[in-house]
TrEMBL record:
GO cellular component: cytosol
Domain Dihydroxy-acid/6-phosphogluconate dehydratase C-terminal per the UniProt entry, residue ranges: 98-235
UniProt keyword terms in alphabetical order: Iron, Iron-sulfur, Lyase, Metal-binding
Segments forming domain Dihydroxy-acid/6-phosphogluconate dehydratase N-terminal: 1-87
Segments passing through the bilayer: none
PANTHER family associated with the record: D-XYLONATE DEHYDRATASE, D-XYLONATE DEHYDRATASE YAGF-RELATED
Native source species: marine sediment metagenome
GO molecular function per UniProt: hydro-lyase activity; iron-sulfur cluster binding; metal ion binding
Stated family: Belongs to the IlvD/Edd family.
InterPro entries listed in its UniProt record: Dihydro-acid_dehy_C, DiOHA_6PGluconate_deHydtase_CS, ILV_EDD_C, ILV_EDD_N, IlvD/EDD_N
Protein name: Dihydroxy-acid dehydratase
A Pfam family hit: ILV_EDD_C
Length: 235
């Protein structure tokens, strides 16, 4: 949340919780987001890169900001055998332009958000940190594709207009199968300078390099009979 990182982290957290037998719902991530400020705007959402973050103090410095604000349990024992506060002793923010102070974040809420609605009854994920402000609310006609390949071919042929909502379905865990990353369509739209003009919805997923109003992990997926399966062009 503080880094505005990859939406894939949602999958990993849920999987780890499942294996550990911990009750951890998708909706709980919004609770975390509500109290975790967005402190780092990393590429492609911002101009800073991972090496900039490292020079600015790295993850320990980010965690130090969160711990000082009471958002981390400083007494928690870690795999090092030391507590979190002991591990973070000496951590320091060396460049507040890269790691913003807790009191001056890019946003008071985290970089990821869980969405629910008539197409995502069981939830969807968006990297809010990479969405242009003007795209946080958007209305437009659907352009529906039944695979990443279909969508990629249409985008490369220019078969879309500003304001469209590109829907890529049957790319979930069952439909893909395997829930591929929709990296090619999002990269094409960004390269064309359209990531601030077009929204993209999918039951597939995205890479950490996603930029724009890209909403993924839509559940239930189309192949499981989710509402995404009945969306038509122009809706």
């Amino acid at each position: 949340m503080a880094l505005g990182g990859s939406t894939n982290s949602v999958l990993h957290l849920l999987a780890i919780a499942h294996e550990a037998g911990v009750d951890f719902s998708l909706a709980k991530l919004n609770d975390f987001s509500a109290r975790t400020p967005h402190l780092c705007k990393m590429s492609p959402a911002g101009k800073h890169h991972i090496e900039d973050l490292d020079r600015a103090g790295g993850i320990p410095a980010v965690m130090g900001e969160l711990m000082a604000a009471g958002l981390l349990d400083d007494g928690a024992l870690t795999v090092t055998g030391y507590s979190l506060s002991e591990n973070l002793a000496g951590a320091e923010v060396l460049d507040p332009r890269v790691i913003r102070p807790f009191e001056d974040p890019y946003s008071p809420t985290g970089g990821l958000a869980i969405l629910f609605g008539n197409l995502a009854l069981e939830g969807a994920v968006v990297k809010r940190a990479a969405v242009a402000p003007e795209m946080l609310t958007h209305r437009g006609p659907a352009r529906v594709f039944n695979s990443e390949e279909e969508a990629t071919a249409a985008i490369m042929a220019g078969h879309f207009q500003k304001g469209d909502v590109i829907v890529i379905r049957y790319e979930g865990p069952r439909g893909g199968p395997g829930m591929r990353e929709m990296l090619t369509p999002t990269s094409l739209l960004t390269g064309m300078g359209m990531d601030g003009e077009i929204a993209l919805l999918t039951d597939g997923r995205f890479s950490g390099a996603t930029q724009g109003a890209a909403i993924g992990h839509i559940s239930p997926e189309a192949a499981a009979g989710g509402p995404l399966a009945i969306v038509r062009d122009g809706d």
